[in-house]
Amino acid sequence: AEAAAHNGSGAAAAARAPATAEGMALAYGSLVLMALLPIFFGALRSVSCAKSKNSSEMPETITSRDAARFPIVASCTLLGLYLFFKIFSQEYINLLLSMYFFVLGILALSHTISPMMNRFFPANFPNKQYQLLFTQGSGETKEEIVNYEFDTKDLVCLAMSSVVGVWYLLRKHWIANNLFGLAFSLNGVELLHLNNVSTGCILLGGLFIYDVFWVFGTNVMVTVAKSFEAPIKLVFPQDLLEKGLEADNFAMLGLGDIVIPGIFIALLLRFDISLKKNTHTYFYTSFVAYIFGLGLTIFIMHIFKHAQPALLYLVPACIGFPLLVALAKGEVTEMFSYESSAEILPHTPRLTHFPTVSGSPASLADSMQQKLPCPRRRRQQSPSAL
């Protein structure tokens, strides 16, 4: 993950022509705003996600073991991509990646806009329910692979997202790229939950070292960013005022610089709510810290004219500011003893086996309803789980 200025091919490089002060201010200001939106709304949606009693809407919980391994896995993936681009044809690799992110992006964008779009449908809209169910095995050993319930409204959202997907696939336009990037970021902040603050510190600390090493220590990160044609970054043209929507001199911010601090900020929001003081002190503190860290990244990059590992500045700010507030308020013990998953798991119905039922998926669902203590609710599977 890095912040950089790059040309139309995605390279972290000097601008083709000197960018105007107004163009740079517009580009960097837009990047900051686009980074803040998925963090803010993703954190709010993570609270609803955590309170959900529906097992299909359960977030993915990151443990301390996962956090410790993540920088190693990310390093291996990054190095693997680097070698792939060096050995194989860049064109064919990007074609495969484009198809993969085309499908994933449509699902992510559909999941993102679905709650907002529900407000625009009329009350008499003919809304039919559908279910996509895949299982393996039989009897008590039957395991659910996919159980995706959706309705007509979801299909409308999916169709709208598909238009953006086709636009991205055909044109690779920066607006389509950003729509997918924002959807990925919001879904990541909403559905990836750290189980406690200690795990967050391990994850951010490990990726702090990862980011600094791969940006400053080698050219691997920059080379992959240059070759990788996928919506894994937000971009905004610095020459928008001169060339309009066809501008090609971009400033860039990796999605990792949004999602990684974002899931830590979302954890602090859930911690705020657990204190039952009707204040969001730690959330707002970390949110301001993120703005400060991202602003410092852009300032340093502008001064030294070199791509910067944004986590170098974001991690100390996002951890340090809330920790100072906790020290001042005498709540350090409460902060580090808070367990996010403890509020979810004891109340969440778990289905340990599937009943043997013949017939339609509806009959299977009715049988499952009798097994569970809570009434059956509409299940909305996350794109990441698919």
Portion of residues in helices? 55-70%
Q: What overall geometry do the principal axes of the alpha carbons give?
A: globular
The ordered string of helix (H) and strand (E) elements is: EHEHHEEHHEHHEHEHHHHH
Give, in spatial order, the strands making up the sheet with the most strands.
1-7-6
Subcellular location: Endoplasmic reticulum membrane; Membrane
Transmembrane segments: 25-47, 67-85, 92-113, 191-216, 250-269, 281-304, 310-328
Protein name: HM13 protein
Family: Belongs to the peptidase A22B family.
Give a written overview of the molecule.
The chain has a three-stranded antiparallel β-sheet with strand order 1-7-6. Strands 2-5 form a two-stranded parallel ribbon. The longest helix is centred in the N-terminal third of the chain and has 31 residues. The protein is mainly alpha-helical. It has one domain. The C terminus is likely disordered. The radius of gyration is 22 Å and the shape is globular.
Concise summary:
By secondary structure, the chain is mainly α. The protein has 13 helices and 7 strands. The protein is globular.
Write the layout of secondary structure elements.
Layout: E1 3-6, H1 21-51, E2 60-62, H2 64-87, H3 90-117, E3 129-136, E4 143-151, H4 152-171, H5 174-191, E5 192-194, H6 197-217, H7 220-227, E6 233-237, H8 240-243, E7 250-254, H9 256-274, H10 281-304, H11 311-329, H12 332-337, H13 361-371
Parallel strand pairs: 2-5
Antiparallel strand pairs: 1-7, 3-4, 6-7
Search tags:
globular, transmembrane, 386 residues, mainly alpha, two-stranded parallel ribbon, endoplasmic reticulum
